[in-house]
Amino acid sequence: MSNKPVERQSWSNRLAYVMTVAGATVGFGATWRFPYLVGENGGGAYVFLFCIAMIVIGIPMILVENVIGRRIKVNAIDAFSGTANGKKIASGWKILGYMGLLGAFGILAYYMVLGGWVLNYIGSLLSGTLDLSSPVTVETTAAYYKESIQNSPLAIIGYTAIFVLVNYFILVKGIVDGIERSVKYLMPILFVFLLVMVIRNVTLPSAAEGIAFYLMPDFSKITPKLFVFVLGQVFFALSLGFGVLITLSSYLDKNENLVKTATITGIMNTLIAVLAGFMIFPSLFSFGVAPNSGPTLVFQSLPIVFSNMWGGSIFAVIFFSLLVVAALTTSLTIYEVIITALQEKTKMSRKAAIALTLGTIFVVGNIPSVLGDNEWKHITIMGKSIFDAFDYISGNILFILTALGSAIFVGFVLKDEAKAELGANKTFTNIWFNYVRFVIPVIILAIFFNSL
Q1: What's the CATH superfamily of 14-451?
Q2: Can you tell me where the transmembrane regions are (predicted)?
Q3: Which of 15, 84, 154, 317 has the fewest Cβ atoms nearer than 10 Å?
Q4: Taken in order 338, 69, 113, 397, is the CA torsion positive or negative?
C-alpha cells in the first residue's frame, strides 16, 4: 500500500476514447449474444427494434454515465459523491457505485469462461482435434461441445487462465500504454476479421435467403414485450449499469463533446452488431442450419456451416479469433472498473489492485462457473447453474437497478450540474434532461419487471 495519491491519466484524443468505448461495448454482446437473440426472436423484427432501442434508451443512457463519470473524474463509487447545486450529496448514493462493481464482478465471473471456451475451439481447430475439413453433423458438434466444454473442467480452467493472463499483461501497463494502445490495434483487427467473414458468407449460395430473414422485419412478430426485451439487450450491448462508461469517461478531457462521443459510440455498437449478423445468418441458411438454436448457435451450429464451406477450417479459426479479440476489448474495460476503484479507495498500487481483482474473480467466479457445468452441477442458485446465475443476477438485476439509480441521480440530484457537464446547446440539453428525469426511469422499470 502507498499513501501517494493515484495519478490519473487522460485519453490521448477523442479517437482513442471512442475506440476504447467501442471495444468495451462490442464484446460477446455483439458477436455472440446479439446473433442468437436475433435468431430466436424473428430475425429482421429484432434487428429493427434494436436500432430503435439504441436511440430510445442507448444513447441517452450513455450520456447519463458520461456525465456522472466526467463530472469529478473519480472511480465509479466516488462518482456518486461530492456536491451538487451547492449541497453535499448524501453518502447513500454511493451504493449505486458498489452495485455496479458487484455487477462487473458477476459478468466477469462467467464472461472470462466464455473466452476460455473460444480459446479451446481455436486450439482444437489448430491441432485437428476438431476437424472441419469435411462436413460434420449436429450430433458431432453437440458431442464435441459436451466432451470438450461441459465435461473438461481442467482444460477450460486452463484456457480461461490463459485469457485472464493476457488481460493482466495489458492492464499492468495502465490506461494509455495498456488499454488504449492495445485497443488501437485490436479494434482494426476485429474490423478486418469481421469484414473477411461478412464478404465470405454473403457470397455463399442461397445467402440471399439468410439476408432476407435478417433484414426483412416481420411486423407481426413485433410486440411491446419483445421491444422491452430488446431494450434490455441494449443495456448488455452497451455495458450500461456496471460502471464501465462511468470509469472510462472519468479519464475524458473536460473539453470533449459528450453528445458527439455518445452518438458515435451508439452508432459503432449498432454497426458492429448488425455486421455480426451478416457473417452468421447467410451461412446458416446456405447450409440449412436452424437459426434459432439459442446460446449454442456460435459453438454448435456454426461449426457445421464451416465444415460445409471451402476453406472452412481457416474461416473457423478467423471467426473464433474475432470472438477472442472482441471479448478482450470488453474484459479489459470491465476489469478496469474494479481496479480503478481499488486503487483510489485503498491507495493500493496498480499491480496489486490488478492481481487482487483478477485473482479473486478467477478463484471465486471463473472456477465455480466452469465447475457448474459438471462437478458442481447439483449446485443451483435461484434454480440456475452457477454460470447462469452470475449472468442472470448481474444482467437482469444489478445492471438495471444501477442504471435506474443513475438516471434518478442525474435527474433529481445533479440537475443543473448535469446540464452544465453535458455542455450541449440549451434546447437539446433540456430535452435530454427531462427525458432522463421522467421517461428513462419508466422504461428501465419496464425492462426490470419484464426480466424477472
Answers
A1: Amino acid/polyamine transporter I (1.20.1740.10)
A2: 15-34, 46-64, 95-119, 154-176, 188-214, 226-252, 264-290, 310-340, 352-372, 392-414, 435-451
A3: 154
A4: positive
